[in-house]
Amino acid sequence: MARSMVSEIGIGKGRFRKAFLSCLQMRHSQPDASERAIEELGDECVYCGISGTEERLQFDHLWPQASGGLTIIGNIVPCCPTCNSDRRDIPWEDYLRESPRVRARRSPPEVGGQIRKISIYMERHGQANKPTIESVLTRDELRLREDFNLMFHKLCSRMKRIGQRTVSGDPLLPLTKRGLPRPGAVHVLSRTLTGQRTTRRPPVESDCRPPSSGRTCRASRAART
Known about the structure:
Layout: H1 5-26, H2 33-41, E1 58-61, E2 76-79, H3 81-87, H4 92-98, H5 100-105, H6 108-124, H7 133-136, H8 139-159, H9 185-193, H10 218-224
Antiparallel strand pairs: 1-2
Helix pairs in contact: 1-8
């Protein structure tokens, strides 16, 4: 069943906000964090233990990016694609204890040893405490994020009312029959978001000269003939 436009906008809003936050966090990432993590933890999945020679390893954030986790040493660990996908937002300690994949490959003592190993790794690099967005981003970045969220919220609110009219009577993104914005629709939306009233352009004046000049345009001469 096809989703409604409102639900599509809601899904897109979350993805845009997540992507924008990720761009801000990338400014604080460490380019060599992945290599250093492998040197300290080994070339294997920290969860199930599968070797990097058997599967191409990825890197998982122990503290999720949504809660302020950065791509830095002490917060990323090598893991296989299956564990990276299965863990989702589950705390990494709970995933090690409860994952069927991990329990099938590691004994309980091995799981306990792996939890201690990862905890020491996080403490060594100052990542033992859960970060926050406010503690990671600078003041200017936080202000920029607030401005982006406010602007995007207004944009989504306006998009939900496509085909209707605002209080000022200006159309919002008039659509063609195929559902594509008509020419000039983005201009209308941008002026509406900034609080400027959109007015129609005055009619184009004819290039014919007034009769007092003694000259006539081609259209007038053609009509006479």
